Amino acid sequence: MKKLLVASRGEIACRVIRAAKSMGISTVAIYSEADLGSLHCELADESFCVGPASPKESYLHQQTILDVALSANVDGIHPGYGFLAENSDFARRVVSENMLWIGPSPDCIDEMGDKDSARQIAKAANVPVLPGTDRFTIDDEPDLLGLASEIGFPLLVKATAGGGGIGMKLVTDPTKLTAVVESTANLAEQAFGDGTLYLERYVANARHIEIQIFGFGNGKAIHLHERECSIQRRFQKIIEESPAPNLAADVVAKMAIAAVSLAQHQNYQGAGTVEFVLDADTQNFYFLEMNTRIQVEHPVTEMVTGRDLVKMQISQSEGTQAVIEQGEIMTSGAAIECRLYAEDPSFHFIPSPGELTEFTIGANENARIDTGYRVGDSVTIHYDPMLAKLVVWGQDRTQAITQMMDLLNQSKVKGVKNNIAFLQATLKHPQFIDGMISTHFVDEHLNDLI
């Protein structure tokens, strides 16, 4: 590969561009009118405008992006995460133009992108799956209470095409089930163009654990250990770490085996993540979904394994990535990632657009900062308000927490509201320090954290 187009923006575009350039690959950035002069464009060798601020008219406009790729004579396209990263139609169009798609096969994206299909595949691979219903639509006029009685309350109403916490709602009251199903279906139709739903058992005392995998095709895959992703707001992650605290080694091992089994079953190629919900009371775990792309939190894994997942993705697509044996993947120390957002934690974490009049991020020898912003840049209403990912490594979890607190104490953001104080409060909370966390941590301790 001589030239690569990065079909994304912000910190992940910067991350991929840097990796490609370190491999001697020329890079092409795309940007919307709202992102004119952005950091990812400055880092790339070439950059092209693909439309107005609206993602639908720019970062999601497949034809425009393909036209840029063809005119720039690129050899491949890396989609980053978000936007078109898990769009099988776009992947097929890239391949049909004789360009390399930096990701798994379009068929695999299809199979794992549909949550109901993914559940069936997980079952076939002997991966534990939560009790749930088959897919349905409102037009099917399902017997909702009859379906729910087989699962029990509380339960989750989930969109089959959902992701990132969108299209997922908790129901505790049977009398509200119909209304929640209808509202979730409408939201899913608007967000994904697909109002298909299913019901799934809700785990009350849950932890969100994910396993990073990498597939080499032909049934060969490995894992790069686990990440703890339980610190969330609105079903979206805020803090991730590896290894997961207070989790028995045999449970982690079983999860890893299940994740690799799923990847092997799919003849998976490239980086992917298998997400599980862990019942903290029983220590049983269940398949949630598989993300067929690089994850926001991939630096946590890179910090403890010393492996560069983006470079591995590129090499795999080129056909130059050597097969790595599981025994070669070693871990060292502990890593923590904090997502720095332009948002107001005291007001339901509402995004806070505006100009960054000050943007100073701390630094130390064990820290990694991934960002797409600089002083003077504007945070707009059009895109995710994440400003940066702060990642640290320590010899153990205690040292990693101390390193992160030092980093946050050095950081200053002005011009927009931000969650620095919220992150600091979380890291120093006694239960977080003790590793006593769950997906309800933020809700349960919200008054303390804000």
TrEMBL record:
Pfam families per record: Biotin_carb_C, Biotin_carb_N, CPSase_L_D2
GO molecular function, one term: ATP binding
Biological pathway: Lipid metabolism; malonyl-CoA biosynthesis; malonyl-CoA from acetyl-CoA: step 1/1
Catalytic activity: N(6)-biotinyl-L-lysyl-[protein] + hydrogencarbonate + ATP = N(6)-carboxybiotinyl-L-lysyl-[protein] + ADP + phosphate + H(+)
Domain ATP-grasp positions: 119-318
UniProt KW ATP-binding keyword: yes
Residue stretches making up the Biotin carboxylation domain: 1-447
InterPro entries: ATP-grasp, BC-like_N, Biotin_carboxylase_complex, Biotin_carboxylation_dom, Biotin_COase_C, CPAse_ATP-bd, PreATP-grasp_dom_sf, Rudment_hybrid_motif
Keywords, ordered alphabetically: ATP-binding, Biotin, Ligase, Nucleotide-binding
Keyword Cytoplasm: no
Quaternary organization: Acetyl-CoA carboxylase is a heterohexamer of biotin carboxyl carrier protein, biotin carboxylase and the two subunits of carboxyl transferase in a 2:2 complex.
Annotated function: This protein is a component of the acetyl coenzyme A carboxylase complex; first, biotin carboxylase catalyzes the carboxylation of the carrier protein and then the transcarboxylase transfers the carboxyl group to form malonyl-CoA.
Protein's recorded name: Biotin carboxylase
Organism: Shewanella hanedai
Lineage of the species this protein comes from: Bacteria, Pseudomonadati, Pseudomonadota, Gammaproteobacteria, Alteromonadales
